Amino acid sequence: MSLRVQAEADLAVTLEASTDFGEPFTLTDPSDFASATQLYGAVGDIGQVLDPDTGQAVSARHATLTARIATLTAAGYTTLPEGKADAGVKPWRVDFAGVSTASQRYKVVQSFPDRTLGVVTMILAFWNAAAP
Amino acid sequence: MPTVLTALIDKQDNFEVVRDQIAVLINTNQAAQVILAAAEPDPNLWKLRVFTERAQPWEQFLNEPGKALVSQDLSPIVNVWYENGTFPESMGDTVKRQAHTATYNIDVYGLGIAQDDGATGQIPGDLTAVQNATRGIRFVRNILMAAENTYLQLRNKDGAALGPGVYQRWVQSITSFQPDLASESAHSVIGIRLALRVTFNEYSPQVDESNALETVHVDIHRASDGMLLTDAEYDLT
Which of B61, B78, B130, B133 is the most exposed, fewest CB within 10 Å of its CB? Predict the structure, then answer.
């Protein structure tokens, strides 16, 4: 077994183990398919500042999710998550809770698949599931 | 020993008066517009939150304790601030009065959150942010360039030689800034700037400007976060 394959196999512990860094999340694709089994990955939602170029910053948040590609494939997702710019389709959606906060809904705006190691990192934006 | 001023400088210069007046005009008119829009599906689309001379980061889009993100007040933020001014030598004298041509920046911040469209698609947050910011700038420009505000309601009282005597207000430019792509934020925020050039009088401190202005009486209050609150009555009958 190559080191790369070994590293990918280790993701079950280093990325997905719920007793370590693995946090539960839900991933819904544009066709509203969501895995029936609970998924685990590395989630993040931290404060940051935006610079709208007016000379005055805006406080904002930066949210990410990193998941194991093999797990997503095994769960039934036929493609990797990606940002959907088309307003005519639903985006990929993600739900996860902070350590001490209620669950938050996000949409995937950008994804960075790392096919060398076998993970995909998603940049998330807030998603309001309620229709206008 | 040089001669010193014997009177306390306890007045506002007119560039401050004009700045506050711009904010008051925007604030009172946005409130009036919300009332006028009562029959519209969402009158709050006409709402603006007005501030002056703010320089610290905006937290209004982020933290409203006890409220879920989607139920927060997401109406555009307006910040009125003085950028610079020049004093043309041909428009004044060295003793009493100098014309002041000032540029005020009126920055509008629009927030967008991606949303389900209720059918098969989505309303992208980046698009909503631009729409909110441009709507805010649209209201600001129309309010300031309305006939009622030709002189920002700061003309001198009839026959009075003194007072701010606003000669002219003119939209110098509207600039839409690039979105901050590097931050990869969970919010979409767009800033648009309207630069308003205003020409008015400034006076040397020995000049008594009292009773020189057309009566303009507006109570200005500020919320705990600095947002402008003005008392105004609207007769819409």
Answer: B130
